[in-house]
Amino acid sequence: MKITEKKHAQLLWHIFVSFCKISPISFGGGYAMIPVIEKEVVEQRKWMDSDEMNDVLSIAGSSPGGIAVNAATLTGFRLAGLPGALAAVLGISLPNFIIMLALTIGYAAVQNLPKVTAAFEGIHAAVVGFIAVAGWRMWRSAVYDRSTQLIFIGAVAALLLTHLHPAVLLIIGTVIGVMLYKWQVKLGKLAAKEDEQDKAASGHPPIVSGQYIWGDGI
After folding, report:
1. pLDDT tens sequence across 162-187
2. Where do the structural domains in the chain lie, given as residue ranges?
3. What is the radius of gyration, based on Cα positions, of the chain?
4. What pTM was computed for the model?
């Protein structure tokens, strides 16, 4: 076996093992698994940086299906292509399947026990904490200026006050994001043109378009 093939096989094994570890300890699934995935992939394995992980989570959250499985698929694919995606999905799915099969068999006998009920109440409270941490981390990277703050407020208001499907809000957010990007590009070009004119008149160096956009809070 060639060295590159051996390293590729080792990477696939590490991907599988990593997501096998993530799956059983992430109660609540979905968004509750995001902090655990981020810690394993970014902090421990250092396969991605925070910005790359945020991109993965954004795509995973806006795609059909569970965000945890989507994030595992995208992470595996980014690291090792299609085999990596398959290894990640198998790793995050297999332990849960085995555990749920065992719990289903035994749950009927213990579901009415007070201690079991109390345990699940504690798990539910902890899951809320996991989701809050995941939301806070996504907030820091996704809501960073006035335009994204307005999109966030609008999305929350629409979810609470209307019956719009989340998919509709994602489409609206996508359209607004594209429009804002075009607007920023236009403002940047206008700013650069105006700065060049100011430089010719006053001798001061121009402000680059990126500084104009971010300085204005757009």
Report:
1. 888 888 888 888 888 888 878 877 77
2. 1-142, 144-218
3. 23
4. 0.56
